[in-house]
Structure formats: structure tokens, C-alpha cells
Amino acid sequence: MLEAHFKSADKRPSSAPDAESAGRELSDPDGILQARILVVDDEPVNVKLLEKMLQAEGYTNVHALTDPRDVKPSYQTQPFDLILLDINMPFLNGFDVMQQLAEIETESYLPILILTAQTDRETRLQALKSGAKDFLTKPLDRAEVLNRIHNMLEVRLLHNQIRDQNRLLEQKVRERTQALYDTRLEIVRRLGLAAEYRDNETGLHIIRMSKYSQIMGLEYGLSEQEAEMLLNASPMHDIGKIGIPDNILLKPGKLGPAEWETMKTHATIGAKILSGHSSPLLDMAQEIAMTHHEKWDGSGYPEGLKGDQIPLVGRIVAVADVFDALTSSRPYKEPWSFEDAIAFMKEQSGKHFDPDIIDVFLATMDEIIKVSKKYAEPDST
């Protein structure tokens, strides 16, 4: 009999809710009455009774299952806000169902209210350990059931609100962080372009050599993120030329010894311009500005570093920068052919350049030539 599952003191028509229930029906500002509720019990009588009780209370989204094997696929299709779950059922008991739900619900607070005739301590503890948030013993007290359901749904909805707010805040933080990164990156690019405008080179030079650097970095084994940072930091390699006097920087002929010493200071000037900030991007840019004129055999400048003393990014950019300079037209020279430039790079392996980087350079030559042609100077043939 239906009445056997509820205390006799609570017998009344399902269409006549108590005063407290009626108050909740008239106002539902938190959306509790629209919450998705699932009743799981192998006894159709119990299911029907709970459905009627919840609908009479004003709940509008009540679902029921008598086969516990259907719970997992139903929850995967559209999660529920509360599950009223029996323990003793065929095929899968309530503990089995909770284990299945725990495997697929890893982020949300899932209120599971156990309804059982078993009152022993072991069953209660096992239910709580398995994921139940509360339990009621049969015969059920109607008022207690409704209040427990209401309270658990309040917790569920508050949890979801906090979760959604946290996700929104995390998204805003990501957007703000990306905006700051993009702004910093744009400044880096424009500073690099400013340095090129002071020289006899163009912005296309920094595009080409930075893309060469990224290609070689990836081939060498840098991560996607590291190679992208190299792409964005390498345009700053000659930023120090801003500090070189025009009569030296723009001199059409060969520089004298004193002039050359002044020209070489652009490496330390660039490093100083880029120093004093904790940004990984600017740290890498500073390292490149300072070391891309060092040579593998120790004959470079400004510090005469040798071999692995030269940071990897400096060794990569050195190859990219020289190759593009050789194959580009300048007021004082014609561009070298790819064949002649490649032959020179090979000849300088172990002298000017890291042999391993030259191997990477040669392995990616097809990609590098594509970039060179794609971003060729407007007057190139």
C-alpha cells in the first residue's frame, strides 16, 4: 500500500500542501522548484508516491526511474540537481549507482538523498562514504522529506552559483592576462620596428628572421609556447641601435675601428633597455639582444662568450639574423643567392655558429625559404 511508506500522521491529499509548502509555491526566487529531480526506486508504488508529493509541492521538473541501470546514461544526457535514491534494488544497488555517478561527476556538488528502510549504522556510514549527502529512513515523514529536499537543493544551487561565478572570474582573469600580454607584445613589436627604421633595414627583416627563429626553435626541440615566445622576443634583437649615433649607424661605407667599437655597444644598450622587468618575454628579448652577436668560437661581442656559454636563443637568432642579412638587399650590397648564403652558413659552422643549430637550420631550409619568399621586400625579384 502507498500509505505504508509514510508515517500515518502525515496522511493527507497530495493536492493540499501545508502552509509552509504553500508559501514556497507562491514564490520561487531561487529557482528551486525548477530544479531537476530524479527519483530512483525499483518499486513503482514508491516512485509514484514521491512524484505526486513533489508535484503537489510545486516542483515542475521531476523524473523517475525504476531500473537503476538507467541512472548513469540519464545523468550523462542531462545532469540532475537532486537524486532520491533507494538502496536495495536489483541489478545495481544504491551504492553501485553512487559509484557510477562519482566517476562521471567530478566538478559539481551532487546532492544524493538516500531513502531506505535499513536503519543500521553500517548502512548509513557506507551511504555517506559513497557520496550521499543525507538519508531518510522509511517509513518517510512527508514534511521531513520536503524540507530535506528543499535544503539540499538550496545548497546545490548555491554551489552552482559560486562555481559559475568562479568560472566567470577565471575567464575574466584569462582575458585580462591575455590583454596585458597582447599589449606588451605590441609594444615589443613596435620597439623592434622603431630600431629597424633607424637602420638601413625594414620591418620585413624582423618578420623574416623572427619566423626563421621560431621554425628552428621548434625543430631544435622547444615547446610550442617557448617557440612562440622566441618568435615574439627576437624582433627586439637590435633595439640597442636606437642609441647609436646616426653618423655611425647610417654611414654608407666601412666603419673605422673606433666607430665599430661604438656600433658594437648596441648589444649592451639593447639589453639595458629591456632589463628590469619580470616578464618572461622581456627576459628572453634581453638575452637575445645581449648575445646574438656572440660567436661559437668566442670571437663575438660584447662579452666574448664561447660555445654553450651563449644562451640557446642567442645562438638561434644569430643564425636567423645573419642568413636574412646575407639574402637581403641593402644600399651597400646586393642580396646573396640562397645557395651562396647556405654555403657560407655551413662554412661558419663551429666558428661563428653552433654546429647543432646549423644542422637544424639545414633541416628546415625548405620552410625558411618559403618564409623568405613570402615576406620578400617589395622591390625584390
Structure description:
The protein is mainly α and 381 residues long. The chain folds into two domains: 2-170, Rossmann fold; 199-374, Hypothetical protein af1432. It contains 16 helices and five strands. It has a five-stranded parallel sheet, sandwiched between helices. Helix 8 packs across helix 12 (280-291) and helix 13 packs antiparallel against helix 14. The longest helix has 57 residues, at 142-198. The radius of gyration is 36 Å and the shape is elongated. It starts with 18 loop residues before the first helix and ends in a 7-residue tail after the last helix.
Main sheet summary: 5 strands, parallel
Q: Would you report the number of β strands?
A: 5
The gyration radius over C-alpha positions equals 36 Å
Helix percent reads 55-70%
In the CATH hierarchy, what is the architecture of the largest domain at level 2? Orthogonal Bundle
- CA(first)-CA(last) distance: 94 Å
CATH class bucket of the largest domain? Mainly Alpha
Q: What is the name of the CATH superfamily of the largest domain? A: Hypothetical protein af1432
- Structure class: mainly alpha
Strand order of the largest sheet: 2-1-3-4-5
Regions with little confidence, pLDDT below 50 for 5+ residues:
8-26
Helix and strand pattern: HEHEHEHEHEHHHHHHHHHHH
Overall pLDDT, averaged?
A: 86
Write down the domain tally: 2
Strand content: 5-15%
**Total DSSP helices:** 16
Looking at the structure, what is the overall shape? elongated
CATH topology call of the largest domain: Hypothetical protein af1432
